[in-house]
């Protein structure tokens, strides 16, 4: 996460996690981040605003495990005929 103004960057903070997605997920006008790791079925929402050290106002963990395990089972190839 980086901060800056019109002239230059003024600071940065490293966040853990992978695959970040940014947006305003709670509608408060502040940027939020969702991060997850590919091997973990959980994701973390980090709600902004963030401190200069990268600490969010609050966090929430989401369990992304599908209800139907067959979601991950590869099916037969689909032919394009």
Question: What are the main properties of this structure?
Answer:
81 residues, 6 strands
Write a brief structural summary.
The protein has 81 residues and is mainly beta. It contains no helices and 6 strands.
Describe the protein's architecture and organization.
This protein has 81 residues and is mainly β. It has a domain at 16-64. The chain is 0% helix and 37% strand. The model has no long low-confidence stretch (mean pLDDT 81).
Q: Tell me about the largest β-sheet.
A: 4 strands, antiparallel
pLDDT average, as an integer?
81
The tally of helices reads 0
Strand percentage lies at 35-45%
Query: What's the gyration radius in Å?
Result: 18 Å
What is the N-to-C order of secondary-structure elements (H for helix, E for strand)? Answer: EEEEEE
User: What share of residues is helical?
Assistant: under 10%
Helix/strand structural class: mainly beta
Uncertain ranges: none
Question: What are the SSEs and their pairings?
Answer:
Blueprint: E1 2-4, E2 9-12, E3 18-23, E4 32-36, E5 42-47, E6 58-63
Antiparallel strand pairs: 1-2, 3-4, 4-5, 5-6
Organism: Streptomyces sanglieri
Protein name: FG-GAP repeat protein
Keywords: Signal
